[in-house]
Amino acid sequence: TRFQLDRTLEIIERRLWITQRHTRQAASVIQPSLLR
Description:
Blueprint: H1 2-35
C-alpha cells in the first residue's frame, strides 16, 4: 500500500509539472496576441 501511495504521488507530481509547462507555453503564446 505504501508503495502504491508513493507511485500515485509520483504520477500526480509529474502530471502537475506537465500541466505547468503547458500552461507556461500557452501563456507565452497568448500574451503576445493580447499585446497586439
